[in-house]
Specification:
Length: 129
């Protein structure tokens, strides 16, 4: 008996299980909506091409290294990320291990939390579209 329904044969049981399987929500494919993917790519490219440094857990990294780390975290948490803001929160805000925020460090400017910088840049990107 499955979900109160009794299958009389093994084939009926398989059909019932298949029917239930295809009606369950699919969270394995969760990610930012297709309409927001260009935003994520834009932000990743900003990090990658930035002439600024990125501080993570007290160590400095260049844009390419920061891009690699953020991209890796994005891939790891893709199932939990459902918006561009979620991408920033999960992948580019702070270390999950130490809890320390990531910072962008540019000459002539005060260091700024990377998440705050990316949210501001996201706003500019959206305004320009």
């Amino acid at each position: 008996m499955l979900c109160g329904i009794k299958a009389k044969t093994p084939n009926q049981l398989l059909l019932l299980m298949f029917s239930l399987f295809i009606t369950l929500p699919n969270t394995a494919g969760a990610d930012v909506p297709a309409s927001e993917k260009p935003e994520v790519e834009y932000l990743l490219n900003l990090v990658k091409t930035s002439p600024c440094g990125f501080e993570r857990n007290g160590k400095m990294y260049d844009g390419g290294q920061a891009y690699g780390h953020i991209k890796k975290k994005y891939e790891h948490f893709r199932e939990d990320i459902t918006s561009t803001e979620g991408f920033i929160e999960y992948a580019a805000t702070k270390s999950l291990i130490s809890g320390k925020y990531y910072f962008i460090v540019c000459p002539g400017r005060e260091p700024e939390r990377t998440g705050d910088w990316l949210l501001r840049e996201l706003g500019k990107y959206r305004e320009s579209r």
